[in-house]
Design brief:
This protein is 45% helix and 11% strand. With 236 residues, the protein is an alpha/beta fold. The structure holds magnesium ion.
């Protein structure tokens, strides 16, 4: 790959691209549930974590206008159940705070911080996520030039809003941008659909979905991304 002389912007997905997501969500849901069990036992007597999840899915179908905002979805779903079990809806705020704190206890993969540090010398780095981690509360604080969420953008990937807002902010065209992410549909295909070159981060050697065009490049981690970009060395 020749040097990316026109590269102005790299958009980077968060969950499962820069940190593992499932263990953090599991911990956050456990902490959230334990808090609810203490504060709203009638609710937890009727619902386990799985049935809370089913209830959220149902709400997502009923209120597609908040489906892109996972925090609003969680809060609204919980408020409904609290009221149904004769608790004040405001109790959701405490439960959400417990979830929020645990949700930000992410552990970046070992390659991420050094790779972001070097990539940032060459272009703007913007994190874009459908999730609700708050980057400034994580070990990746100050590692990006901008952090955008689907909740703020008004639409989740694969909609183009997050990519478009990142490009507008960085004053970059699709040809001057590159997107890096783990999800074949929500990252690779979504960015490619609006003309952005894409890098598939495949940390667990998963097969590429047969129904999609192959990605421009597949990397196992962000060091491999740096090697593929072959950017000129910049002194410290
Ligand atoms: Mg992801």
């Amino acid at each position: 790959m020749e040097a990316w002389t026109r590269l102005r912007l790299i958009t980077i997905d968060l969950d499962d691209t820069v940190w593992p997501c499932a263990p953090v969500i599991r911990e956050a849901e456990a902490a959230h549930y334990a808090w609810l069990a203490a504060q709203a036992p009638r609710l937890t007597a009727a619902h386990d974590t799985e049935s809370l999840r089913s209830h959220r899915r149902e709400l997502m179908r009923q209120q597609p206008e908040i489906a892109h905002d996972v925090t609003a979805l969680r809060r609204t779903a919980l408020q409904q159940l609290l009221v149904a079990h004769r608790y004040p809806a405001e109790l959701a705020d405490g439960a959400m705070e417990v979830f929020r704190r645990a949700r930000n206890c992410v552990e970046p993969y070992a390659d991420v911080i050094p790779a972001l540090h070097r990539l940032r010398r060459h272009c703007q780095l913007v994190s874009i996520t459908n999730g609700n981690a708050e980057v400034q509360e994580t070990p990746l604080r100050d590692r990006f030039d901008r952090c955008l969420t689907a909740a703020e953008a008004g639409a989740a990937k694969p909609a183009p809003a997050l990519f478009e807002q990142a490009m507008a902010w960085a004053e970059a065209t699709p040809a001057e941008s590159l997107h890096v992410g783990d999800d074949p549909f929500l990252d690779v295909e979504a960015a490619r659909a609006i003309g952005i070159a894409t890098v598939w981060v495949n940390r667990h050697a998963r097969p590429w979905p047969a129904e999609l065009e192959p990605p421009l490049v597949e990397v196992a981690d962000l060091h491999a991304l740096e090697a593929w970009l072959d950017l000129p060395v910049v002194d410290e």
